Amino acid sequence: MSLNLTQKHQNIIDTAVKALHERTFFSHYPENPTPEIYGETADKDGREKYKNYLNNNFNELLQENPVKWVGQEESPYEQQPLGIKYPYFEVDTLVSRAEEAYHQWRKVKPSYRAAILVESLERLRNRFFDIAYATMHTTGQAYMMSFQASGPHAADRALEAIASGYEEQTRFPEATEWEKPMGKYNLKLSKTWKAVPKGVALVIGCSTFPTWNTVPGMYASLVTGNPVIIKPHPKAVLPIAIVVAEVQKVLAENGLNPNICQLAVDAEDHLITKELAEHPSIKLIDYTGGTEFGNYVESLKGKTVFTEKTGVNSIIIDSVDDLDKVVQNLAFSVSLYSGQMCTAPQNFFIPEGGIKVGGETVPYQEVVQKLADAVSGLVNNPKAAPHILGAIQNPATLERVKEASSVKGKPVLTTCDFTNPMFANARTCTPVIYEVDATEKESYSRELFGPVMLIIKTKDTNQSVELAKEMAMNYGAISCGAYTTDPVVKEHIMDEMSLAGTPVSFNLTGGIYVNQNASFSDFHVTGGNPAGNASFTNPEFVIKRFTWVGFREPVVG
Amino acid sequence: MSLNLTQKHQNIIDTAVKALHERTFFSHYPENPTPEIYGETADKDGREKYKNYLNNNFNELLQENPVKWVGQEESPYEQQPLGIKYPYFEVDTLVSRAEEAYHQWRKVKPSYRAAILVESLERLRNRFFDIAYATMHTTGQAYMMSFQASGPHAADRALEAIASGYEEQTRFPEATEWEKPMGKYNLKLSKTWKAVPKGVALVIGCSTFPTWNTVPGMYASLVTGNPVIIKPHPKAVLPIAIVVAEVQKVLAENGLNPNICQLAVDAEDHLITKELAEHPSIKLIDYTGGTEFGNYVESLKGKTVFTEKTGVNSIIIDSVDDLDKVVQNLAFSVSLYSGQMCTAPQNFFIPEGGIKVGGETVPYQEVVQKLADAVSGLVNNPKAAPHILGAIQNPATLERVKEASSVKGKPVLTTCDFTNPMFANARTCTPVIYEVDATEKESYSRELFGPVMLIIKTKDTNQSVELAKEMAMNYGAISCGAYTTDPVVKEHIMDEMSLAGTPVSFNLTGGIYVNQNASFSDFHVTGGNPAGNASFTNPEFVIKRFTWVGFREPVVG
Fold it and tell me: Which segments of B404-552 does DSSP mark as H helices, in order?
């Protein structure tokens, strides 16, 4: 890497470290896919590149001698296989290549590692549109979310991890002289410290956010000197394969072993995740996905594990200024990507006595109706709905929505049929709504991943808070939305939900939603409840990836 | 707490935070027990206070309504019971009191918590001599170590934990305004963050360093807002009981619940550690002690656990400038507190072809003889030996020294008899030495806690390093001493031992020893091998005790 590049990268890193601590708005990668920013032909080029991948071998990786070529992706918009094949390797091959790369990568200085990784993100900027189409046709996200979440937002989250890892590794001096007065003389020791990386890292991706949820762990492990093996969900490989390819190119250009960052795909007939995770040489594991597998990963001995599993997210409605604005905001939150975000709300707690709107009480049933009307209005808006809902990634999600009718409650909206005007064959589903009584705990104390909205009738706001807290503590929660105009109630909600390790967004209306989560400002998942044991990106997320080891020797003379 | 006190304390905290990052020599509490520093009558007063505790109830604690009074301490110097009784409480009482205290303590601001804790250390300064005698007659440490380790060194380690916890909790802003440009308008959110303490903490102490090994976890949990229950080893209660009493007094004087910090003792017929550790309300556990129980503590589900267990510490001898100085230094290291320090060396790796001394080769057998002579010389020095060796804390340690004769090797020094001139009935033992061949791995691949020195004859230094690394990786290591004049060998040792998470002291001679470990500079235990999963005090040691939780709300207007 040329030195002028390194200075440019150091500036990016320094700015990012500063942003980490200010936690005001900061973004290095623009989120708007406009021609002014990304170039006149960027969108068209990206779409073409995506099309060229279809029914071909993905040959951008620098991983040699695959056993075979495999692939099982399908577009939720077309419900057709993509036909893309990726190189398949045995687990032992992947691990031994990573171990070899470890002894090169760990000796690269943290600042240089950070610069190389920033360079990979700068390259990725030119791949945001390819990645956007790859994300659409693997996850079912709508175009805008595909671009933003998998491109600039993911790159910002990766930069956040680089900045945090760089900061933690440079927090203590590399060397110092320790001089202790002993009365008649001074004892002098020359001391040095090393941040020693833990070893081979595994990152297990999910099917809905294949880059956004993968790059934080991936870049956190890399910047702290650990080689990584990226094991994407078999249905969402292409977006992260492009990322891995760019990292490998930058590594190779700088004389480094591209196996510092490897892609590992499942064979059609053979899932390799458990074999990888249980391999004694795997020291670090990042995981995003379902709770059951996440608990298994957390239970593995001798590994440092970072998880984002699932949760039951709550909305607490106590009192509002403008109910119409509130229900529009909430309808958007449950409809966005058809409820397939880990931050999407599910349980809406509303007191049976209704809520205060301005000075007036609006009865419970009217609030429910307004919520339902807002959802109906949104999904029946042909201009907006397809761009908000996207498609359903997994057929199992559709099944789950059907099963939601078995909750002990009252159906409010039950049809989820929707036709996407651009993709007639898309797998789609709009939010369904059921009313449940607070006593029917079994019905709402689990995650119903997908567009399912449960309205839970409570005795009062105190009970709403109590139940939201209980759900978060027992089943996990990644987000919570609360509406109250009463400062005492607000303080109570903050205090109770803080004990459940759950961040709270208060009184959101307009263009900001409970699902959204800004890098360099919002910690994503807290680690403080069963929804996950890690957080993007708090200091713990990086410092557990290396060990401080000190050396000392008397100063001669 | 008066405001001028707070400013004084804030200055101490700020200075300590700075020292954490400089890692040069820093000490807030003077280690020399001289009248100039601590007062003319301090030593005499301390001894009298200690004597007054004997055969009495320890009534300084502010914990009400004990079930009974219990105690089982014995002086290793007298081999007689101390007769001190402590208040005994049921586990449920301790935990429910801690839970109640939690909701008060967690709401105290981190800076105020830190100031209160610093005040407790300032008070403790006046108890250093009481604690010294208490430590002597529970642990068997000699007077000077008792004073330094349990008094000023422990207080400095506690201050280190306070400083680190304070820094981590104030690293992000309490509140900020987040403003995102949206083209035609700006989205504005007011954001706040809380460092939410995890809950009730348990600190399990050991019998040899009852304050030094207990206060880091204790103060780390307290400064991050968690109430603590201190469960000392039943044979070493008094030193830490004095510390807990001082903390409780400061809490009470400041209008806080003294149960924020409780002492929990075992009944004579009923050990309560497991019951405490397994209690679902216990969220944090710090543990120092044997590996078997440590592994049990680490295996408990739903707890954040910090351990310092045992290790097999190595000395690697390759080449030296002055062999006499080296063997004197090493003889002191194995004799200090009769090898009962977790940092004491056990396995001495010496190549069969001998070592380089200056330009000459000194044969293996001569090096062994010099080591043995140095140990004999030291233990036969009536002026020095009693003050270095101290007494043996646990009769089981004596048994272990006897059993050491079963190693497959050659006895070099086998008698451990020693008479302390001041304490005729003291339980004592001087270092024994056995020679073992490198092939007899079983003999040296376990910790023989106590004054046991194994000399392992290796093919060459490469094998010495390989074995020292293997021992550290498989059985843990807390320290490593290496002697080499060759920079290539030195680099090799640093690299290999860093991979085993083991700090290395090179070429120590004169008044500094591999066993010693300075707060604010040396990380104690790295967490990177089986000797323990935590480190005094790296950032990980404090940040795992709380969760960052964020709150946000649109800015109105």
Answer: 441-444, 461-475, 487-499, 539-543
Q: Which residues of chain B have pLDDT under 70?
A: 1-5, 557
Of B341, B552, B458, whose CA–CA distance to A507 is shortest? B552
Between residues 32 and 71 of chain A, which touch chain B (CB distance below 8 Å)?
Answer: none
Integer Rg of chain B from CA: 25
C-alpha to C-alpha distance for A202 and A221, rounded to whole angstroms: 9
Q: Which residue has the tokens 């405001």?
A: B3
| Partner B, chain A 200-219, Cβ-Cβ below 8 Å | none
State in words which class domain A39-308+535-550 has.
alpha beta
Of the candidates B478, B517, B519, the one whose C-alpha atom is nearest the C-alpha of residue B164 is B519
Burial B168-191 (b: 16+ CB within 10 A, else e): bbbebeeebebebeeeeeebbbeb
| pLDDT tens digits, A308-326 | 999 999 999 999 999 999 9
Give the closest-approach CA distance of B193 to chain A in angstroms.
9
CATH class of segment(s) B3-21+38-309+535-550: alpha beta
Q: Report which of A371, A350, A375, A372 is spatially closest to residue A361, judged by C-alpha positions.
A: A350
Supply B70's token pair: 């219990």
Q: Which residues of A260-277 are buried (b: 16+ CB within 10 A; e: fewer)?
A: bbbbbbbeeeeebbeebb
d(CA A261, CA A280) in angstroms, rounded, equals 19
- Measured CA angle at B323 (ends B317, B326), to 5 deg: 70
3-state secondary structure of A64: coil
* Structure tokens that stand for B82 in this block: 């101390």
Candidates A20, A22, A25: best to mutate against B (most CBs of B within 10 A) is: A25
Provide, as residue numbers in chain B, all residues whose Cβ is less than 8 Å from the Cβ of A196: 498-499, 501, 528
Instruction: Label residue A478 exposed, middle or buried (CB < 10 Å: 0-12, 13-18, 19+).
Output: buried
Domain ranges of chain B: 3-21+38-309+535-550, 314-506
ipTM of the complex: 0.97
Among left, alpha and beta (phi > 0; psi -120 to 50; other), residue A542 is alpha
Write the CA distances from B243 to A263, B28, B39, B154, B217, integer angstroms. Answer: 54, 17, 20, 11, 13
**Where is B398: in which H helix or E strand?**
helix B395-403
- Other beta carbons less than 10 A from residue A172's beta carbon: 19
The owner of tokens 């609030």 is: A367
Nearest to B499 by CA among B466, B537, B535, B456: B466
**Residue A176: beta bridge partners?**
A191
Q: Rounded distance, CA A524 to CA A502, Å?
A: 10
Structure tokens at A77: 């918009």
Tens digit of pLDDT for each residue in A82-92? 999 999 999 99
Q: What is the pTM of this model?
A: 0.97
B42/B46 Cα distance (integer angstroms): 6
Contact between B503 and A552 using a beta-carbon 8 Å cutoff: yes
> How far is the C-alpha of B515 from the C-alpha of B388, rounded, in Å?
13
Enumerate residues 80 to 119 of chain A having a beta carbon within 8 A of any beta carbon in chain B.
Answer: none
Contact predicate B251/B261, CB 8 Å: yes
Which CATH number does the domain B314-506 belong to among 3.90.180.10, 3.40.1160.10, 3.40.309.10, 3.90.1210.10?
Answer: 3.40.309.10
The pLDDT tens digits of the residues spanning A70-128 come to: 999 999 999 999 999 999 999 999 999 999 999 999 999 999 999 999 999 999 999 99
Q: Confirm or reject contact between A543 and chain B (CB < 8 A).
A: yes
Q: Do B539 and A171 touch (CB under 8 A)?
A: yes
Report CA Rg, chain A: 25
